[in-house]
Specification:
The protein is about 30% helix and about 45% strand. It is α+β, with helices and mostly antiparallel strands and about 150 residues long.
Length: about 150
């Protein structure tokens, strides 16, 4: 399991406003190129975001589904990105004096990516997820600054 952590200079509320707005998904998730639909119950468990992965014209339509959600504390997603497989992603937020300490964990759970040795996949996911958290931080900090 790959783990990244970032202190975001915005409140937990501002961070979760981004995390739970399915329409912002492609703005902060590295690899997601567009959001096609967000189910009405999102971010409740069992509801999905329908998105595309890749760069045009090599775009694959897929989905990400909420598996667990505790408002302002925890969000767990099951992301499909076939043909590479599926991953489980967790976000754990902790208030640090009005700022958000956000931990992101990711593990491949299905498909070809599960057979790649952790020593090879971990540095790639760590690098990708650092950029994902950077994008998320910029959105949340910008939201906080405009409030």
């Amino acid at each position: 399991m790959t783990e990244n952590e970032r202190l975001i200079h915005a409140s937990v509320e501002d961070v979760f406003a981004i995390l739970t707005d399915g329409w912002t998904y492609s703005a902060w998730v590295v690899g997601a190129s567009r959001v096609r639909d967000v189910e009405a119950g999102w971010p409740q468990p069992g509801h999905s975001i329908h998105h595309s992965v890749g760069v045009w014209p090599l775009v694959i339509n897929d989905s990400t589904t909420v598996t667990q959600y505790e408002p302002l504390r925890f969000l767990q997603l099951r992301a499909r990105a076939w043909p590479t497989g599926e991953g489980e992603i967790e976000f754990v937020a902790t208030d640090r004096g009005g700022q958000c300490d956000l931990v992101m964990r990711e593990v491949a759970v299905k498909g070809p990516a599960t057979v790649i040795p952790e020593a090879l996949i971990d540095p790639i996911l760590r690098f990708r997820n650092a950029e994902t958290l950077q994008r998320l931080a910029l959105l949340a900090e910008g939201r906080a600054g405009s409030a």
